[in-house]
Amino acid sequence: MPVTVKTFTSTNEAAAALSSDRSARYLGGGTLVMRALNEGDISISTVVRASDQAMTRIDASGARVVLGAGVTFARILAERDLGFLHAPARSIGGPAVRNMGTVGGNLFAPVPYGDFTVAMLALDAVVSVQGGLGGREIGIEEFLQSRDRQAGTLVLAISFAKPGSTEAFRYRKIARIKPKGGAVITLAAHLPVNGSRIVGARVALGSMAPTPIRARAAERALEGRALDASTINAAAAAAVEGTSPGDNALASAWYRREIVGVHLRRLLSGQE
Amino acid sequence: MTKTPLQFQHNGRDVAIFVDGGTNLLVALRELIGDMTPKFGCGQGGCGTCSVLIDGELHLSCLTLAETVAGRSVETLDGIKDGPNLHPLQRAFADNFAAQCGYCTPGMLMAAKALLDRNPQPSRAEVVEAISGNICRCTGYEPIINAVLAAASGGRARA
Amino acid sequence: MLELRKDLFADERDDNLKEIGKGTQRQDMLGHVTGTSPYFDDHKLQGMLHLKVVRSAHSHARLRRIDTSEAERSQGVRRVIRASDVPHNLNTLLSLINFGKDDEPSLAVDKVRYKGEPIVAIVADSPREAFEAITKVKIDYEPLPAVFDVEDALKPGAPVVNEVYPKNTFTYHETYDRQQLRFGDADRALASADHVLEQRYQMSPIEHAPTETNGSIAAPDTNGRYIVYTSTQALFFSVDTCAKILDVPSNTFHFIGGTVGGGFGGKVDTLTEPLCILGAMLTGRPVRYVFGREEEMQYGPPRGAERIYIKDGVMRDGRVVARKVRAYFDSGAYTRLSSYAAVKCAAHLPGPYTIPNVHGDVYCVFTNRTPATAMRGFGVTAMDFAIECQMDKLAHLVGMDPMEFRILNAYRDGDMKAHRREAKNTALIECVQVAAEKAKWPIREEFKRMSSRKDGGGIRAAVTLTPRETHAPAAAPIQQRTTYDRAPAATREPPPPPPSLPTSPPPPRPSAPSHGATRFSSVFGTRRR
Question: Which value, in Å, is the radius of gyration of the alpha carbons in chain A?
Answer without folding.
Answer: 19
